[in-house]
Design brief:
heterodimer, A: alpha/beta, Rossmann fold, 2 domains, 6-stranded mixed β-sheet, B: mainly alpha, MetI-like fold, 11 helices
C-alpha cells in the first residue's frame, strides 16, 4: 500500500513521452502559511513539445501546481527544475516562460498593440524588433485588425486572444495557461481551442494547460494529468494518442467520445476515493 | 459628429442655461412686483448694469483672486502628489502621517488664516498658502487611493516580467491612479478658489489685496449691494469655469478608456 499522501493506488501511469525534460517536479509540495496542505509531494516531468493538461475537481491544487511551475510561488518541500536548472539561472540561458491568466488582465488605458508589447517593453527590447513581434503575434491569434483598439472595445474572446498574443510575443519556450477560456461561451471556447491547438502544433510550443472541461482536455492535449483533492495530488496520467493537426472533426469522432469516457471515469473514481476518506 | 451625440452636447449646455434663464426671469419679476429695495436684494437687471459699468475694476479683482487660486492649486498638486508618493512607499509612513493630512481638511481655514497672515510678511504669499492648505487634502487622499488601487492581476503580470520599480510606477501605478487623481483635481480646483476668497476675507480691507473678496467687503461697507452681487456672480463663474476645465482635462486623459468618461455601452 503506497503512502496515502503520495499518489493514488493505481500508478500515475501513461506512457512518458520521449523528449528533453522542460520541467521536472521532484517531490515538490505546497503548504500554505495558514496550514492548508494544497499539494502533496508531486513527481512529474514535462517534456519538450508536449501539451499537458491538468484536470481535476475544485480544490485539487491544479492552479497551485501551475503557479509552482511558473515560479510564482515556491514549493514548501522538494524542488523544481526548469531545463535542468534552478529557476534563477533559467533567465540567463535565454529561456523564458509565459503565463496566461484566467482573466485577460489587459491595461485598459493602453491600446491592444501596447498591451501585447508590454513584456517586450519591460525587457527593453528595441522598438523595431518589438513591433515586428507584436504584429506577428497578433496575426497568429487572428487579430491583425484591432491593433489600435482599446480593450473596452473588444469582446471577451478577443480580449483573451490579446492576452495570448501578449505571451506569444515574448516567444516563450514554455506556455502556462490557467483556465484561460473558462469565462467564455461554448462557441468561442471551441473556436479558441481549435486556434490554440493549431498554434501549438505550428511551433510545438511546450504547453501546460489547466481546465475543468473534459472535452477541452481531450481535444487539446497529448497528455492529461488527472488530479485529486485533499491533499492535491496527481492520480493518473492519460495519453491522448490522436495525431495532429486536430480540428473540429476530431470532436465528432468516436475516439473522442472514448477518450472523454475514460477521462470522465478517472475523474469519477478520484472523487469517489475522496468521499471515502 | 453623430446626430445623437450632437444633440447630447447641446442638451448638456442648453438645459442648464434654460433653467438659469427661468430662475433669472422669475427673480426679476419677483423683485419688481414685491418692490424689494435694491440695497436688500437687487434684481438681475441691477446686477447686470453694475457689471457693465464697473467691468474694468471687477475684472482686475477677478484676476487677482484667480491668480492666488491658480498658484494655490498648482502648489497643492505638486505637494499633494509628492506626499501621496511618499505614503505609497510604506504603510508605516502612511499610518503615521495620514491623520495630520486629515487635520488639514477639518481645520476651518478662517481659524488659521489670521495666524498665517500675521506670520508671513507678503500678503499674496500668505493668501496662497491659506488657499493651498484648503486645496491640499483631496489631492493627497485621492492620489494615494489611486496609486494603491492597482489591478492585482496586472501587478502579478509586471512582477512575472521582472519589471523594475520605476517601470511599474510609470507604466502601471500612474495610469491606474489617473481617474482618482482627476477626481481629486476637480474637487481641489474649487477648493483652491474658496480658499483664496476666504483668505482674502480674513485679510480684510487692510492689506494691499484687491481681489473679489475685497470688492465684496468694500461693497458691503458702501451698501452697494448690486456690486456685491456682481462680484459674487464673478466668483461663481470662476468656480464653474475651473470645474469645467478640470472636467475637460479629465475627458482628454480618460476619454478613450475609463468608464467614467466613456459612459455605458448599449
Amino acid at each position: 500500500m503506497l503512502a496515502p499522501n503520495k499518489t493514488c493506488p493505481e500508478s500515475a501511469g501513461g506512457r512518458v513521452p520521449t523528449g528533453a525534460p522542460v520541467v521536472e517536479i521532484l517531490s515538490a509540495d505546497k503548504v500554505f502559511p495558514n496550514g492548508t496542505r494544497a499539494l502533496a509531494p508531486i513527481d512529474l516531468t514535462i517534456v519538450a513539445g508536449e501539451f499537458l493538461t491538468l484536470i481535476g475537481p475544485s480544490g485539487c491544487g491544479k492552479s497551485t501546481l501551475l503557479k509552482l511551475i511558473a515560479n510564482l510561488i515556491e514549493p514548501s518541500d522538494g524542488r523544481i527544475l526548469w531545463w535542468s536548472d534552478a529557476f534563477g539561472r533559467v533567465g540567463s540561458s535565454g529561456r523564458s516562460l509565459a503565463f496566461v491568466f484566467q482573466d485577460p488582465t489587459l491595461m485598459p488605458w493602453a491600446r491592444v498593440e501596447a498591451n501585447v508589447r508590454l513584456p517586450l517593453d519591460l525587457a527593453r527590447t528595441p522598438k523595431a524588433e518589438s513591433s515586428k513581434r507584436v504584429a506577428e503575434a497578433l496575426s497568429r491569434v487572428g487579430l491583425e485588425g484591432v491593433a489600435r483598439h482599446y480593450p473596452r472595445q473588444l469582446s471577451g474572446g478577443m480580449k483573451m486572444r490579446v492576452s495570448i498574443a501578449r505571451s506569444l510575443a515574448t516567444e516563450p519556450d514554455l506556455l502556462l495557461m490557467d483556465e484561460p477560456f473558462g469565462a467564455l461561451d461554448e462557441f468561442t471556447r471551441n473556436r479558441l481551442d481549435a486556434d490554440l491547438v493549431r498554434l501549438w502544433w505550428e511551433r510545438k510550443l511546450t504547453t501546460v494547460f489547466v481546465t475543468h472541461s473534459i472535452y477541452e482536455a481531450v481535444f487539446l492535449s497529448t497528455r492529461v494529468a488527472v488530479m485529486g483533492a485533499q491533499p492535491g495530488r496527481i492520480c493518473k496520467v492519460m495519453t491522448i494518442d490522436e495525431p495532429h493537426p486536430r480540428d473540429e472533426s476530431f470532436r465528432n469522432a468516436p475516439r473522442f467520445a472514448e477518450y472523454c469516457r475514460a477521462l470522465s471515469a478517472s475523474l469519477t473514481e478520484v472523487s469517489l476515493q475522496q468521499m471515502q476518506r | 459628429m453623430r446626430p445623437l451625440a450632437q444633440s447630447e452636447t447641446a442638451m448638456t449646455i442648453a438645459a442648464p442655461l434654460a433653467v438659469g434663464l427661468v430662475i433669472v426671469v422669475f427673480w426679476e419679476i419677483l423683485c419688481r412686483s414685491a418692490h424689494v429695495p435694491v440695497f436688500l436684494f437687487p434684481k438681475p437687471s441691477d446686477i447686470a448694469l453694475k457689471l457693465a459699468s464697473d467691468w474694468p475694476t471687477l475684472l482686475a479683482a477677478l484676476w487677482m483672486t484667480l491668480r492666488v487660486a491658480l498658484q494655490a492649486f498648482i502648489s497643492a498638486i505638486v505637494v499633494g502628489v509628492l506626499i501621496a508618493f511618499l505614503f505609497v512607499q510604506s504603510r508605516a509612513v502612511e499610518k503615521s502621517f495620514f491623520p495630520y493630512a486629515v487635520l488639514l481638511q477639518v481645520t476651518p481655514i478662517v481659524a488659521i488664516a489670521p495666524l498665517i497672515i500675521i506670520l508671513v510678511k507678503n500678503t499674496q504669499v500668505a493668501l496662497t498658502i491659506c488657499a493651498t492648505v484648503v486645496a491640499l487634502f483631496p489631492i493627497i487622499s485621492n492620489t494615494t487611493l489611486g496609486l494603491r488601487s492597482v489591478d492585482p492581476g496586472l501587478v502579478n503580470l509586471f512582477r512575472m516580467n521582472r519589471a523594475g520599480r520605476l517601470q511599474t510606477l510609470f507604466r502601471l501605478r500612474i495610469p491606474s491612479a489617473l481617474p482618482y487623481f482627476f477626481g481629486g483635481l476637480r474637487i481641489s480646483s474649487g477648493l483652491a478658489l474658496i480658499g483664496a476668497v476666504v483668505a482674502e476675507f480674513v485679510a480684510g480691507t487692510g492689506g494691499r489685496s484687491a481681489g473679489l473678496a475685497y470688492e465684496i467687503l468694500q461693497s458691503g461697507f458702501q451698501l452697494d449691494i448690486p456690486r456685491m452681487f456682481a462680484a459674487l456672480f464673478l466668483i461663481t463663474l470662476a468656480g464653474v469655469g475651473l470645474f469645467t476645465i478640470m472636467t475637460g482635462f479629465s475627458k482628454l486623459a480618460l476619454g478613450q478608456w475609463h468608464e467614467s468618461e466613456v459612459g455605458a455601452e448599449t
